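batch job 7 of whatever, protein = cysteine desulfurase
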Amino acid sequence: MMQKGALNVEKIRKDFPILKRKVMGGKPLVYLDNAATTQKPLAVIDAIHDYYMNYNSNIHRAVHQLAEEATKAYEDTRVKIAKFINARSTDEIIFTRNTTEAINLVAYSWGRANIKKDDRIVITEIEHHSNIVPWQILTQEKGAKLEYIGVGDDGYLKMHEYKKYLDSGKVKLVSVSHMSNVLGTITPINDIINMAHEKGIPVLVDGAQSVPHMPVDVQKLDCEFMAFSAHKMLGPTGVGVLYVKRELLEKMPPFMGGGDMIKEVHKYETRYNDLPYKFEGGTPNIADVIGFAAAIDYLQKIGMDRVREHEIDITKYALDRVAQVKGVTIYGPMNAIDRGGVVSFNIGDIHPHDLATIMNDHGVAIRSGHHCAQVLMERLDVAATSRASFYIYNTKEEVDVFIDALSEARRLFKI
């Protein structure tokens, strides 16, 4: 019997053709690598197919019917994204290739105009490399410094360290993950933003793991920047989103020079296009942006509150079951309310790559490695972890298959 408001997962699964696949000699695919990328429903696949079949054209330039249809579909996606995260205007929504490019855009455009020698940029030990490396490049170039908020053994941020950095008077930007792709930790983002704003410091939120999994409202958060990717929320690869408050965006210089980001180009000067097009040089990933609209529609129909409820339920079940496996170390908060649908762990002295291979033999797709978070791996004093991550189409029965495969690995390695 379905609980009131619970997801009808069996019905949802029918919308994802790949979940019918058999792998490794006939085993059902158990896909638990959603933090890396999610599978795509037919609605998204059909939207991309429809574009190429029926109105393939470049956008913004021509006046023929195909161009007008493609431009409308492309810009409709921008409208849907603005509503999805509750931006004040579509002018604040910039299309990029991914979260990484979105963060780099801020580092190169806003960062190079605003970060000076001896300034501080604050990030955390749980960050993905895409929210570390751009700031390393920028601070090294400017003679500024990167400061890290530490993470405790329980997976929670050491907020007293954050306060100390802010009190130094040297911090010019805070850039933090809303949800860790390794620990699953949901950071106290409201406190982080409010504390920064008390000192007049802007905040960038890496929403790659949060926007796909919970309701996110940029006006309520009041962050200056937010970055996320389509492919982690049922959409295609190659589409990222950067939200920027308009008052900042108007002052930022362009990131990419070329076509479509201009009004007029003369021999020695150029007048740039209006927002947001000033930051979207060249022909964009039109088909996949249109496909992203179908993904947003799909999630909106389900409701992000229900997406979150489902993940809390399945994550709690997975945490309870994994914790019962002998020899397992789980990383991150043990309370499912405080984490996203991610369980990172190690088991005995089995290398995560060996474990992932055994899992694959059972048809279970998990991720192993450093998860583009080597700073965190150093903090945890491990080379790598195994990671199972969940989404709307995952079931407790799949968690059981995953646990059976874990038990088999224990048997093989005599743990």
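notes: The chain is about 40% helix and 15% strand.
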